[in-house]
Specification:
The complex is a heterodimer of chains A (378) and B (313).
Chain A (H helix, E strand, L loop, with lengths): L2 H16 L2 H21 L7 E7 L4 H12 L3 E6 L3 H9 L5 E5 L3 H7 L6 E4 L4 H29 L24 H23 L1 H8 L2 H5 L5 H30 L8 H25 L3 H19 L11 H7 L3 H15 L7 H21 L6
Parallel strand pairs in A: 1-2, 1-3
Antiparallel strand pairs in A: 3-4
Helix pairs in contact in A: 1-10, 2-7, 2-10, 3-6, 7-10, 7-11, 7-12, 7-14, 10-11, 11-12, 11-14, 11-15, 14-15
Chain B lengths: L8 E10 L2 E11 L4 E5 L6 H8 L7 E6 L2 E2 L11 E4 L11 H11 L4 H14 L15 H13 L5 E5 L7 H16 L3 E6 L2 H4 L4 E6 L2 E6 L1 H6 L4 E6 L3 H9 L4 E7 L2 E6 L2 H15 L5 E5 L3 H14 L1
Parallel strand pairs in B: 3-8, 3-9, 6-7, 7-8
Antiparallel strand pairs in B: 1-2, 1-4, 4-5, 9-10, 11-13, 11-14, 12-13
Helix pairs in contact in B: 2-4, 3-4
The chains are: A mainly alpha (378), B alpha/beta (313).
The complex binds adenosine-5'-diphosphate (ADP) and magnesium ion.
């Protein structure tokens, strides 16, 4: 391999990029637009779940509990039902997703036995929402019972403690406010990088075939590896610029907490960028038309990253067979890494496994891409 | 001529098929250093396919190519340093300037900077292009593009130059400059293979191969080929060339008629006998003809005659 040839190709490719301001604009604007579109478009937060209550006791305590439901931003009170029939009708016609029924002996039980029972009726059509609604309801009730215990202790004249004796409230770590945006945005960064990275290189070889410059190029002593490196270098620079734009938007615009180090972020981003650039290059070599290559590259990167990277759909909830497939998706590792770097502040040591997988992936694709190019017109 | 020692290019039994058509069929010849070898033939004759195989950008189905003693099929990359190929379709980067294109190819061939700069300078002077160094290749005229292509393919001083229809669509002045450069390369001992659709240009070659449908029908010097011309050539000057052709074709002893710039060329079996007969026939049909004289055949005449003879046989 001769560095002079690599440099010659890189310089030539850069000049062509710079002289085509339209495509350069696209390369820099598309990620910006995609970040905004996807960042605002995808919101998995379930807030304001329509709620219906049926209070069969109307005691101070039952009203107190229902107040907490009303005050929670997870629920919106739609109706206060007067009987079961009304309640079931509301669930049936989907005007509310969850109904809370407080039985007649609620406060009695609390006072005598120290426990009370509340009934929750949940529309299970969408199991995901149902699950979340049940969890939120549990959280609200836990908060209520925690306070009750505290009051009971204080009433008995026990030591006044500022600490709740038993904190049963579920704490969600790393994403305290349960903002889905916090774990969605790092995923979107990975998605945008995958799409844009492969798009950048998908045209580069196909363009030479279409413009007729390839015939002359393959008649020179240039080696396939030199050609590939020379062509990937300028796109790597643009790709890193795109990554910087996406990551900066994530932190400064979407306010995703960033707890990791810049070094880990840049290192892993480079690895992922190499993977997607090589995918685009490979497609460009295989399909000698620009339009075709661009479309295939889009499909190859967008679909697996959306469906199988765990960016929006949790991998552990997929069928085992599909879970196996996700190990073949490079986006899976990068999404894992990004989420951990952003939210947990994980470093290279904690992320050794996904980083290693991504590195292996990058090496394999560099070899594949370099070998795919044949210096012949046949 | 085959197998001569010290040949720059030796082709033997070269064959290439695309599906059912045989684009190049059992082609054999050799080219010496300092020789300009022309491949002549109509569209679809297989010139481009042959050139691609010489440049080792396409693999033949059968046969062998030896360039500078190196087997091209066994070592396709080894010969590329000493060979320059100018494809039929413009292969340079239109969004790069003249200078950037030259530099790119110099880098790919690892030519030392001093060397390629001097060479490019003299080439640009020879082709009258020094003032266009900073112009984008896409904004050059057809002739200048081809001269730039030649300059790029010469920055690394190749021993074998492959030119596929280099002067198609090039103005006469640029063509003359182009050939001047080729002649000076011949003096330096470069072997050149040039395909052309211009038959007048074929006469500038040292030797010619006439190709038709992939087969080489004749291979000789232009003079040698002309001596194979059957019969004689009569040139008729007339304002009504089409009518002349009509009359001539009906005449006995006429083997072929070709409309050329200066009039009509009529190929006859015996010049002395047929000339007055033709004059008489034209007068009888009321077709104007200023004069009729026997001329030396051009390569074009030759080609048409040889093709015709070949298809009859
Ligand atoms: N890549 C190809 N695939 C299929 N057929 C081809 C290809 N290249 C050339 N041919 C066919 O081979 C024949 C010779 O073509 P070509 O070498 O281009 O001739 P020329 O350069 O003399 O015009 C033609 O019939 C052409 O259609
Ligand atoms: Mg051709």
């Amino acid at each position: 391999m001769k560095l002079r040839r690599v440099k010659a190709i890189a310089v030539k490719e850069s000049l062509q990029i710079v002289r085509d301001p339209r495509s350069l604009m696209i390369a820099l604007l598309i990620p910006l637009m995609q970040m905004f579109m996807l960042g605002y478009g995808i919101n998995l937060d379930i807030k304001h779940i329509p709620l219906c209550t049926y209070d069969r006791e109307m005691s101070q305590q039952s009203l107190g509990l229902l107040k907490r439901f009303e005050a929670s931003r997870y629920f919106t009170l739609r109706k206060t039902a007067q009987d079961y029939a009304e309640l079931t009708r509301d669930i049936d016609d989907s005007s509310c997703t969850i109904a809370i029924v407080i039985p007649a002996g609620f406060s009695q039980g609390l006072n005598d036995a120290g426990t009370g029972t509340v009934q929750a009726l949940i529309d299970g059509t969408d199991s995901n929402t149902a699950n979340i609604a049940a969890n939120y309801a549990r959280a609200v009730i836990s908060g209520f019972s925690g306070d009750l215990q505290l009051q009971a202790i204080q009433r008995r004249g026990g030591t006044v403690q500022t600490l709740t004796p038993v904190d049963v409230q579920a704490r969600v770590w790393f994403n305290e406010n349960l903002e889905s945006r916090n774990y969605i945005i790092p995923g979107i960064v990975a998605l945008v990088m995958a799409i844009v990275g492969a798009q950048l290189t998908s045209l580069t070889i196909a363009r030479e075939w279409e413009r007729g410059t390839m015939e002359l190029l393959v008649s020179t002593p240039v080696k396939p590896l030199e050609l590939m490196l020379g062509k990937l270098l300028p796109y790597f620079a643009i790709g890193m610029l795109d990554a910087a734009i996406c990551l900066a938007l994530a932190v400064f615009w979407f306010d995703v907490p960033f707890r990791g180090t810049l070094a880990t972020l840049l290192f892993t981003t480079s690895l992922f960028l190499i993977v997607v650039l090589c995918i685009g290059y490979y497609v460009s070599v295989s399909i000698r038309s620009q339009v075709g290559a661009s479309q295939v590259a889009l499909l190859l990167t967008m679909l697996p990253t959306i469906l199988l990277s765990g960016f929006a759909f949790p991998i552990d909830q997929m069928p085992v067979f599909v879970q196996g497939i996700t190990y073949l998706v490079s986006g899976r590792y990068y999404v894992t890494i990004l989420k951990s770097v952003f939210l947990k502040g994980a470093g290279a040591v904690e992320l050794a496994v996904p980083i290693l997988c991504l590195a292996l992936y990058a090496v394999a694709l560099v070899v594949l891409a370099a070998r795919s190019f044949r210096k012949t017109l046949d | 001529m085959n197998g001569s020692a010290g040949a720059a290019v030796e082709v033997d039994g070269l064959t290439k098929r695309f599906g059912t058509i045989t684009a190049v069929d059992d082609l054999s010849f050799s080219v010496q250093p300092g020789e300009i070898f022309g491949l002549v033939g109509p569209d679809g004759a297989g010139k481009t396919t042959a050139m691609r195989m010489f440049a080792s950008v396409m693999r033949p189905d059968a046969g062998s190519i030896v360039i500078d003693g190196i087997d091209v099929l066994a070592h396709p990359e080894k010969t590329k340093r000493h060979v320059s190929y100018m494809p039929q379709r413009f292969g340079l980067y239109e969004d790069l300037t003249v200078e950037e294109n030259i530099r790119f190819y110099a880098d790919l061939f690892e030519v030392p900077r001093k060397l390629w700069e001097a060479r490019a300078q003299s080439m640009l002077v020879a082709s009258d292009m020094t003032q266009f160094r900073q112009r984008l290749a896409g904004q050059l005229s057809g002739g200048m593009k081809q001269k730039l292509g030649l300059t790029c393919s010469l920055v690394h001083t190749p021993r074998v130059l492959l030119l596929d229809e280099p002067t198609t669509g090039v103005d006469p002045l640029s063509r003359r400059e182009f050939w001047q450069i080729l002649y000076s390369l011949r003096a330096e001992g470069v072997a050149m293979l040039i395909s052309t659709a211009y038959l007048d240009e074929a006469e500038r070659c040292d030797r010619l191969a006439l190709l038709n449908r992939g087969t080489m029908m004749y291979c000789d010097t232009p003079a040698g080929l002309k001596s194979r011309m059957p019969g004689a050539m009569l040139e008729v000057a007339s304002p009504e060339p089409r009518k002349v052709r009509e009359v001539a074709l009906a005449l006995e002893g006429v083997q072929g008629v070709l409309l050329v710039g200066s009039g009509v060329h009529v190929n006859v079996d015996d010049g002395g006998r047929r000339s007055p007969q033709l004059a008489q026939a034209l007068a009888g049909a009321g077709v104007q003809a200023t004069h009729i004289e026997e001329v030396a055949p051009t390569i074009e005449d030759l080609f048409v005659a040889l093709l015709e003879q070949n298809s009859e046989a």
